[in-house]
User: Fold these one by one.
Assistant:
Number 1:
Amino acid sequence: MGIHYNSESKTFHLKAKDTSYVLGILRDGYLVHYYWGKGISEYRNSNFLQFVDRGFSGNPYQQKNDRTFSLDTLPQEYPQYGNTDFRKPAYQVQLENGSTVSDLRYVSHAIYQGKAPLEGLPATYVEDAEEAETLEITIEDSLIGLKVILSYTIFEQFNAITRSVRFVNDGVQSVKLLSALSLSVDFREADFDFLHLHGAHVKERHIERKPLRHGIQSVESTRGGSSHQHNPFIALPRKGTTEDNGEVYGFNFVYSGNFLAQAEVDQFSNTRVTMGINPFDFSWKLDVGKSFQAPEVVMVYSSEGLGDMSRTYHELYRTRLVRGNYRDKERPILVNNWEATYFNFNEEKILEIAKAGSELGIELFVLDDGWFGKRDDDRSSLGDWFVDHNKLPNGLGSLSSNVKEMGLEFGLWFEPEMISVDSDLYREHPDWCLHVPGRSRSESRNQLVLDFSREDVCVEITKRVSDILASAPISYVKWDMNRHMTEIGSALLPADRQRETAHRYMLGLYMVMENITTSFPDVLFESCSGGGGRFDPGILYYMPQTWTSDNTDAVSRLKIQYGTSLVYPIVSMGAHVSAVPNHQVHRSTSMEMRGDVAMSGNLGYELDLTKLSNEEKEIVKQQVAYYKDIRRLIQFGDFFRLKSPFDGNETAWLFTNKEKTEVMVYYFRVLAEPAAPFAFLKLNGIDVNKQYQVTGTNNVYGGDELVYAGLSIPLDLHGDFQSHSWHLKEI
Ligand code: DGJ
């Protein structure tokens, strides 16, 4: 590992684990990109840039006599607008005179051990400076005194490079950032697919992979949250890249609001990837002496397929993004009352469910929406974070103590960023929500969004949530967010800063999350946004797990969890067994399949346990006991995808510990098939040199046999919605 600067060739060679990233300073101080890919011992410019006169690719002023030099044909590190590059720039500024052209050139650089935090923003971190090295390159537009600092961090243990950008106004006039993306990478080729995770509420993170084509392909959010619709992640796998073979480049934005992820293939079949805060409806006024920090992008390279890329993201995020007491701890098995009761509960009912949970070995009871204000449906009370004594006459203190006495921890639901029109908070502070003066306020689920760009709002909500958390033995919080932003504007911002509102909201949210999570370090926080509407690395920095989807149907979950696993660690995925017929898609699947799907994530139950038959209770009891046995393996093991639900009727995946002495394999078949073929599951990911016993049997197989010949998939799985698992241990 290391960052090496060659002052003769003016190249920076960044070496992460087995990855090299090379950039350089070209004539007149332009920063160019040479290479990113498999590790190279020494870069000597074999893939040198070639200069030719290309028609309609103009020449910047200093090179006007050299028709071969054009920014339009150069692979750049942080491209600008207005001086011969006609592709999409990485940023754009507007000056007081209205012009939008700028010109950044190399000024200086610094290399240091470790990684500095990003002020007010979530980011990956190191625990020891030796784990990483950082390069900061300052480029400047000397005409206006605008400095841009590009940061690159490489990690010793990971094939990952993080990038972020800081703008500093050292000039004498204010500058408006119209766009300030965090990353731009120019590949001198276009032989890639464009892979991304799209979806909808109850259908998150479905994988779509299509060949790159000339022109622009992008995914984005304009919703004020990273969104169910598009995750802030894209990858460029080479055309033949599979789960286990081939090159892939991954990009994930550590941010929870509006984003843009884009690939532009130009006239010469170069590919420019850019990622950052969505320039749509964004601008930021940078006064003299002020700076603007753009969030981080985590770039992962793998030469060993999509699976290896995912495992890099998983381990980096599990160990160097997620923080707090729960980072390395096994997560409790919970029961949540939402799908059991919705808003219709009282203290007695809650205690009955908790009691049933305790008899089955469940470890945490979560009281969901409806415990505060006068919230008997979703029309009121958000913002009034005070216990509803009609429903809970003895208060939260007594309820949580009773639950604790049964041997379960107690958890509570909040939706801190929201306000109901029918709430005391709204009656007192009608201007505390996002809104535009004179315009009516669009509601969604009967609620408005609090204006977290305002400090007073953040302070009051922090106080209300903290008061509740301090009032009772609460050891878990589900932090929900159930609508997207409309009429985005803030009562406190001047006209020329209104387009800062959405980003200022995110900064306010991150501050509130930082304050609350650090004030209550023993509380386990799970984020949620109508399920997985904000499943992104920004939120994972504050809250180590996320409710993956409001869709709890086992079949739908196969795609949702498989897609989510492309980037996010298994331990971060909340996965619950719920009732049948399922409340979202009305399908009935067996308790076994529901259990196997949920046990492939962070297990919980979300149904009225008191209504289960004795036989069902017995199955749940066994699942809970079994999960406790394999929990560390599932939550902290390495994950290998074997069969994709996006390819057909079957899904399979496996978990193995680092030593590969223990393996858990899950196979799912959605529909029964007539005349089904004899099929095998090749257990990629286990150790070919070890001998494994299938637990509960006398069968012993060599790892090589299991990987190369495979394991027969049983044909005696009868009917639709079947699952089967194997637990292997080295002998
Ligand atoms: C949406 C969440 O995703 C559900 O699990 C539940 O908490 C409801 N909100 C409550 O309103």
Number 2:
Amino acid sequence: MTLLVVGSVALDSVSTPFGETADALGGSAVHFAVAASLLHPVQVVGVVGDDYPVGELDRLAGRGIDWSGVERVAGESFRWRGKYSYDLQSRETLETRLGVFADFRPRLPAGAENARFLFLGNIDPELQLDVLNQVKQPELVVCDTMNYWIQSKREALLTLLKRVDMLMVNDGEARELSGDWNIHRAGRWILDHGPERVVIKQGEFGALLIERDRTFHVPAYPLEEVFDPTGAGDAFAGGFMGYLARVGSVDTDHLRRAMVYGAAMGSWSVSGFDVKGFEGVTTADVEERVRHFVDLTHIPIAEQIS
Ligand code: AMP
């Protein structure tokens, strides 16, 4: 089951109350791939400039990440700069520089047109559509987006929404896209605009899987230390899609389990700056953390009161 992701391959400069990074490995596709590769091999489509530390990507290739769909061209790599509030609940984008992504036309690596699981990571919705058009018969198409694109490419995003199975966004993005502050009504608004399902991530409060007639919730893994939330949403998506690609199924039970794998990956992502939270993490660690969720969410059936 081929798992394919298109997204930004970035250099991030992040400031949190616990430290900062400058031009560190980042981007939606990178965070996604690092998490997904713990569960299933993943192919990445993107572009970097000639200033990118490609050696770092090559180092990660050993984990089962195929970077052959990442073009290397002359120019400046995508750069993003952000600053988090004291409680890490909100962040401000200080700068977004598209660089080589401004003129990027995605080309799929060999075999990727047959991908069964496709994640359209946070990037210009026109590029997301471009990749979607090149994949022949995907079984599951999930997409992400961000306030930057909701504001600057709304029409393209709404066109894309009609063609995907699932939108996966955070609560702020769901509110901004729908214009509704209530997260459940925002979810319904999204379902009315195309996707069959929507996942809304709520940081330390967990994530919701909203379908037309029911909603599922997974908590965040309880952590006493959090350093950098950047990329947690992409890591969640990587766990979610990596698990589904691994089991080769999109039935309801698997989707719910995929939410737990997503939550587990999000917890490592926030434990370190850039992708360092994943250093030393093995697939066995993932399975063990997933098992903790059983106890975290188990509700013993109450005795009948009446
Ligand atoms: P998340 O924290 O899950 O929202 O993902 C943050 C990642 O998205 C960072 O590594 C950034 O490089 C990347 N990013 C930020 N803004 C954009 C944008 N407008 N388009 C694509 N990627 C972006």
